[in-house]
Design brief:
By secondary structure, the chain is mainly α. It is 65% helix and 0% strand. The protein contains eleven helices and no strands. α1 crosses α2, α3 runs antiparallel to α4 and α7 packs antiparallel against α8. 48% of the residues are buried. GO terms for molecular function: L-aspartate transmembrane transporter activity; L-glutamate transmembrane transporter activity.
Length: 318
């Protein structure tokens, strides 16, 4: 007898819950990641994640750690919902007799990563400007030599003001700056994450047909998420640098992905591509662990032993 399929609305709720918990619990770590990735040689304000958070609280107060959180709270639910639902959709349509090869699992992840950038790119474009504003302000006070002469300190804009300004000056393309780098990060992330999670979770299933216990799904989500996050961190550094609009006078600017890679290698060395890697792992692991705990999929999500029921083709597999 086929396992009951988890509905698409349930998937949307699960992704939303995970995203909201992720924003409220681990957003300060994400802020530290952005600031660590953006600081360049000669403009180093922070030596580590903890140093960044301590200095942020001292200079901006407790809520300074949540700069840009409103953007994530608004858009993280559709972003995670698209990722999870798209992966289910592609897995369902790539399955043959209820089975998926590793290559097809990776293709499904590729499709999910491609779909999610519709929301991810503008969300992160706005979030990065808000998160990095405190670093630029701190540079102005503590390292004035890194700020261009004649620069006037202005009040930090809101996400709505930023979006309006970008749309007015550059049109919709302004919100999608760094789209190529976002694709280069999110597609490989999904290619790694979804097959790894599915196979790890499959190891903890109760019997041949039963679902895995919730703690197995949580651990599998954490392990798969942190592994994929660290694996694509170099591209995340490139994406963060490309999407940052404000810089100190001594910091490099970049014309594209290739130019960014070349300048980072030349001026900062290969280790710069690992900036913020452990922060990103700490952010991603619980977020995807929570998402998959509540949405632990039935056997048709993995390499099931029986053909998928006909009705499954018209709904998202959990």
């Amino acid at each position: 007898m086929a396992d009951k399929q988890i509905s698409l609305p349930a998937k949307l709720i699960n992704g939303g819950i995970a995203g909201l918990i992720g924003v409220t619990c681990v957003f300060p770590i994400d802020l530290a990641k952005t600031r660590l990735q953006n600081q360049q040689n000669g403009c180093r304000l922070y030596s580590s994640m903890s140093d960044c958070l301590i200095k942020t609280i001292r200079s901006e107060g407790y809520f300074g750690m949540y700069r840009g959180a409103a953007v994530n709270l608004t858009l993280v639910t559709p972003e995670k919902a698209i990722k999870l639902a798209a992966n289910d959709f592609f897995r369902q349509h790539l399955a043959k007799d209820g089975k998926l090869t590793l290559v097809k699992e990776m293709l499904a992840g590729c499709g999910a990563g491609t779909c999610q950038v519709i929301v991810t790119t503008p969300m992160e474009m706005l979030k990065i400007q808000l998160q990095d504003a405190g670093r630029i302000a701190a540079q102005r006070k503590l390292m004035p030599e890194t700020v261009a002469a004649g620069t006037v300190e202005t009040k930090s804009p809101t996400a709505i003001q930023l979006a309006r300004e970008l749309l007015r000056e550059k049109g919709i393309a302004g919100l999608y700056k760094g789209l190529g780098a976002t694709l280069l990060r999110d597609v490989p992330f999904s290619i790694i994450y979804f097959p790894l999670f599915a196979n790890l979770n499959n190891l903890g299933k109760r019997g041949a047909d039963g679902p895995a216990p919730f703690y197995v799904s949580f651990i599998s989500g954490c392990v798969a998420g942190s592994t994929a996050a660290v694996a694509v961190n170099p591209v995340d550094v490139i994406k963060t640098r490309l999407q940052s609009l404000n810089r100190g006078s001594t910091e490099d600017t970049y014309s594209g992905v290739t130019d960014c890679i070349r300048k980072i290698l030349h001026n900062e060395g290969p280790s710069a591509f690992l900036k913020g890697a452990y922060c990103r792992a700490l952010v991603i692991a619980p977020l995807f662990g929570i998402a998959q705990t509540h949405a632990s999929p039935p056997r048709s999500f993995y390499l099931s032993q029986a053909p998928l029921p006909p009705s499954a083709h018209s709904q998202g597999a959990g």
